[in-house]
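User: Here's a chain of 258 residues. Predict its fold as tokens.
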Amino acid sequence: MTVRTFCAFAVATLTLTPMAGIAATSPSPGTMRAALADPIDPSYVEADVGAAGTLEGPFDAEAYATYSGLDVQTGQAMVRSLQRNGFVGGYGRQWYQPRGSGYLGELVMVFTRSSGASSIANASKIRYQQDAGFQSLVEPHLNLGSFGVTEVSAGYHWTTVLFEKGNNLFAIVQGSIGDFMTSQAVAQARRAYAFAPSSIAGSAPSSAHAGFAQYFRLIAAAGVMLLLAIAAVVATIVVLVWTQRPGPGVAARSQPKA
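Assistant: Prediction complete.
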């Protein structure tokens, strides 16, 4: 392979290789919120975005770990797991009954690939069954990999349903003080499944980011070409010196005598 061919190949590779840090951008909050269905029961009132103690609105891995109430070490492990599986952003919606104890929550977690959503769903299923408040598994009959659980936590009875759709993971949680509300949760999950889009793509890089990426690729390409050019010059000098180097006998004769 000639130096010119290798330089052309290097430039093409730098141009075509995606930059992971820029490609893995979070979808817009509006796009993620639009993927979540409204409650079947109109008596529920939605919490305000950013309300204390809720996951209402957009969130990242760190915010999700904090909301989960985990200790620092476990929370950091969760963040690493989410990032390793390509999590790029999520959105939560939460409702409550003003004159009752009913609660409903939905969230979507967007990943760069469907395998990431599946990995987190499988890990969640195992963790649910290991919790002290776990009661039973529930079959929501949505799609392959979907599941539901009932559990008791913080004085409430809960039914949680998880399902994957494309590169997204959805969760529906419903309950009250004295009722798991399983039939309502499954009905809400079926509505959410039918409402959810087949995929949610990350937002495109901003023009500033795109310009920076292009600028970086040009600098990198120029650097590779410069290094290859220097290597070619050095190789040429070595070849010339070696081919013009006198043999042992000539060297001995050319030395001055003392």
